[in-house]
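Invent a record, attention on tokens:
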Amino acid sequence: MKAWQRKSSLTGPRVKAVMEGHEVQILHALVSNIVDMLEQRRDSAPRDELAEITGMRSGHSELPDDAPLARLLPDFHRPEPGEDGAEDAAAVTRAHNSGMRMIHEPAIIDAKLAAASTVLRSLPARGGTVSLSPEQAQAWMGCLNDVRLGLGALLLDAGAVDGDPATDIPEFVAEDDPRSAHLDVYHWLTFMQDSLCTALTGN
């Protein structure tokens, strides 16, 4: 895949790139996996009687256990290391995060699913030119970021030492390293996102 290009057209600016068939298959599979995770999270939210009466949806109150999903739906606030009254601060933070998550997680999931749907609809079935409006390109940016975050979480877990996840994603690993194939895809996604950002901003 070559870099995204911003083009003028009679209907307004378009952002275009050519994707090979195997690239389309890889991206489709990755985005579909994100959709599955988010839909399962949405559908497993506890039922709230007040929410059903008022029509206001309520989400989960706890951070997801799954590392990729936790990267997509992180806590809203983390206590500063070394804060005075650390235990009290942690309790307040947990309560704050729980309430914010219950209120806002459903809408966050909706937005991520909408962006993923835009990507899946605009992918050419067997490879070819992807042509996006600026609005569609913004949806691609968000979705590519989600895919990178999820894959990055898997790579960090795979690089764990003594049960502690790695803190950095390596630039290179040996070909026989179990992370090798996923790392190549991660860097490809990074290039795709950076290139799309450059095409959108003109920088």
In short: The longest strand covers residues 14-19. The mean pLDDT is 89. Residues 65 and 76 are 16 Å apart (CA to CA).
